[in-house]
Amino acid sequence: xxxPHDTDYELANGTISLWFxxxxxxxxxxxxxxxxxxxxxxxxxxxxxxxxxxxxLEVRHQSLTASDTVSKADAxxxx
Length: 79
Fold this sequence. Notes:
The chain is mostly beta strands and about 80 residues long. It is built from no helices and 4 strands. The protein is globular, with a radius of gyration of 14 Å. The protein starts with about 30 loop residues before the first strand and ends in a 7-residue tail after the last strand.
């Protein structure tokens, strides 16, 4: 699903809460997106992506000049 950008989505802070069921996790090194509000490069900042790398869960946030990633190993199991 793709939702077009709207300036109402530009928040200074907030919380993302979601639930998903992984029927199959991707191979390690293969990223599978769960949620993303992103763009090319850093441009306006405020980008966030939540994705799987194998059974690891990664959250990446980008500002105007930096990219930070937090990951949790073995966070996801297949059902």
